[in-house]
Amino acid sequence: MNDAVSSYKHCRLCPRGCGVDRLSGEKGFCGETAALRIAAVSIHRGEEPPIMGTRGSGTIFVSGCNLRCAFCQNYQISRQGQGKTVTQAEFVRICLTLQEKGAENINIVTGSHAAPALAAGIQAARSRGLVIPALWNSSGYESLEALSLLAEVIDGYLPDLKTLDSAIAGRFFKAPDYGEVASAAVKRMLSLRDIRYEGAVLRSGVIVRHLVLPGRLESTRDVLRWFAEHAAGKGLLSLMTQYTPVGGADSGADIPSRTVNEAEYETVLSWLDEFGIEDGFYQEPPLSGAPDSEWLPDFNRANPFPSALSTPVWHWRA
Questions:
Q1: Overall number of domains in the chain
Q2: The overall pTM is greater than 0.90
Q3: How far apart, in whole angstroms, are the C-alpha atoms of residue 41 and residue 91?
C-alpha cells in the first residue's frame, strides 16, 4: 500500500480529521469511502474567461464534500449521494475524452476528500497522453497534506475563500475553523503555482473565488482586505454575486432569502478600488433583484446545466 492510498486508512485527509477507515468501507464526514465516485462530466462554459477559453472547461464533478454549505447548489452530489464509482482506468478515459472533445483543461470540482485517487488518476492520464492543464476547483477547506499529494500533478487552483468570520463559517458551512484553514491553504496554493497564460487561456496559477452573501458585506470586506495583503500580484480574484437561495440543501440555517442588491454591489466594487485590487474578475448581480434558479444544476438530468452553459460528456446514470 503506497503512502497516498494509506491516507484513507485512518483518514485525516481534510481538516475534519475523522480518522475513519475509508479503505474498509467506512464513510467520513464527506460521506464517502475510499472509492472515487463521480456524478457528471461536461464541457462547461460558465467559468471565468481564462478557464473556459474558447472551447470550454472539462469539468469533473466529484461526489461527496467535507463542508455542509447551507446554500450548496450541488447538494444532490455533495450530501444526497448521487454519483457512481469509477476505476482509475475509467477516470483516465474520461480525462482523455475531454481532451479529445477540445476541453481547455481538466477541471476537478470538489475533490478534496478524494485527493489520493485523483492525484493517481491524473498521473496515469498523463502517462496515456493527457497534456491539457489540470485544475483543482475546491471549497478551500483543504489540509496541507492533501495539497502536498496534488502538488506534482495540478497546474492551477480555483479555491473559494468563503469567509474569515468563524461565526458565519460555523453557521453556514458547519466549519468554524474555515477561515483559518482556507487562508492557509490558499497561501500554500499561491506558493506552488505562478500565473501563466497560453494566449488568453490560463495554463497555471491561482484564482481565488469569493461569493458575496447578501446582508453579510463585512465578511466580504475582510476577505478583500486579506486578498490585497496576501494574494495581490500572486493570484487573481474572482468576485461572485451569483448567490441564489437553494432550499434543497435543507440545512435549517436561515440562509439569506434574496440576491445581492444594487447598493451592495456598488459598495463591494468600491472596496476593490479602496484595496487596489485590479487583477481578476467580477460578476454583475441579477438585474431583477429576484432569485434566478434557471441556471442551477440538476444532477438528475443527463446535462445538469442549461445547454448554453454545458455539453454533457458522462453522467452517473448513463
A1: 1
A2: yes
A3: 11
